[in-house]
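Much of the work behind modern protein science is quiet bookkeeping, done one molecule at a time. The protein below has been through that process, and both of its lines are reproduced in full.
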Amino acid sequence: MKLDFDKIDRVIHERGRLAIMTLLATRVRWSFADLKAELKMSDGNLVTHLRTLHQAGYVATTKEILDRPQTSYGLTERGRAAFAGYLALLEQIVKTGQG
């Protein structure tokens, strides 16, 4: 079987975005502050990656005012499906490589 690396989702495949997608897959929503603390990213870097994921339709943004304004992020259905497909493709690549 020939490996088709062109099928890898380049939006997800970048290290920072892969880390974000992985965290977002673990619970319904993450606040910006929690993502930043967990990933140890600068505000600008995190915002840039979240914007890219949002533009791809993979991440939804929720803004609410609790004690203070807070923005949180979660995977959309499209994002969950894309992440599941990404992981399945990587698994297929690894299995084929072990062949």
